[in-house]
Write a structure and sequence with these properties.
One of its GO terms (biological process) is monoatomic ion transmembrane transport. The protein has nine helices and eleven strands. With 229 residues, the chain is of the alpha/beta class. The protein has two domains: 115 residues, NAD(P)-binding Rossmann-like Domain (Rossmann fold), CATH 3.40.50; 101 residues, Regulator of K+ conductance, C-terminal domain (Alpha-Beta Plaits, 2-Layer Sandwich).
């Protein structure tokens, strides 16, 4: 797929590099030569451009792009202007980063397809991992349901998925089991990496040190975690 990312700061630069690593074609744009220089070897194309210049933007392959992401993080005015310019070009999918609530209201009025809240989402995930014992990471599916990574509660170590009775007792599904394995990096230094087991079966045995990927209602998840106190 092809993506155009405007704004190559911390968020936009990392997003562009990650999408490129996944095998996608990424065109990264920023008015700052230093920011473009920092990512030019990590993404497909890195261009120094003032994206508030409508004529310059028209030279981009916008119609070929599967999505355009406006990742500008500080300049309120520039973000709105750039979003409006790309909106006029009938982009297939226009995504814009929200700087604050007022900014979000404006870009929604312009007609973006999606709004990103990277700082807010990151803070929310961190808050949940801190306030729920054993939680490593979480993903909101809705206001009430979550997918979470949690350290295996001691009472489940050595049991099969079926024997834990998590689904029967708490209405929570174990989506998979993640194991931490040691792998050497390019310098030969060993560090722990996550290895996903895949689709678990009722006979899959939960071992000490495993991480469970759980799906369920937030209240049910909190109930099961409180039992470890």
């Amino acid at each position: 797929m092809k993506y155009i990312i405007v704004g190559l700061g911390n968020f936009g630069g990392h997003l562009a590099a990650r999408l490129t690593s996944y095998g996608h074609e990424v065109i990264g744009i920023d008015a700052s030569e230093a920011k473009v220089e920092a990512v030019k070897d990590k993404i497909t194309h890195a261009i120094v451009m003032d994206a508030t210049d409508a004529q310059a933007v028209k030279n981009l392959p916008c119609k070929e792009a599967d999505a355009v992401i406006i990742a500008i993080g500080e300049d309120f005015g520039a973000s709105i202007m750039v979003t409006a310019i790309f909106k006029q070009l009938n982009i297939k999918r226009l995504i814009s980063r929200s700087i604050n609530k007022i900014h979000e209201t404006v870009i929604q009025a312009i007609g973006v397809d999606e709004v990103l809240h990277p700082e807010e989402d990151s803070a929310e995930r961190m808050a949940k991992s801190l306030q729920m014992k054993g939680v490593i990471d979480s993903l909101d599916v809705s206001d009430d349901y979550n997918i979470i990574e949690v350290k295996t509660p001691k009472r489940y170590v050595g049991l099969t998925i079926s024997e834990t009775k998590i689904r029967q007792d708490y209405h929570i599904n174990i989506l998979t089991v993640i194991k931490m394995v040691e792998k050497p990096n390019i310098f030969g230094v060993k560090s722990k990496k996550k290895k996903v087991t895949g689709v678990v079966t009722p006979d899959t045995v939960v071992e000490e040190g495993d991480i469970l990927l759980l799906f369920g209602h937030i209240n049910d998840i909190q109930s099961i975690l409180k039992l470890e106190d």
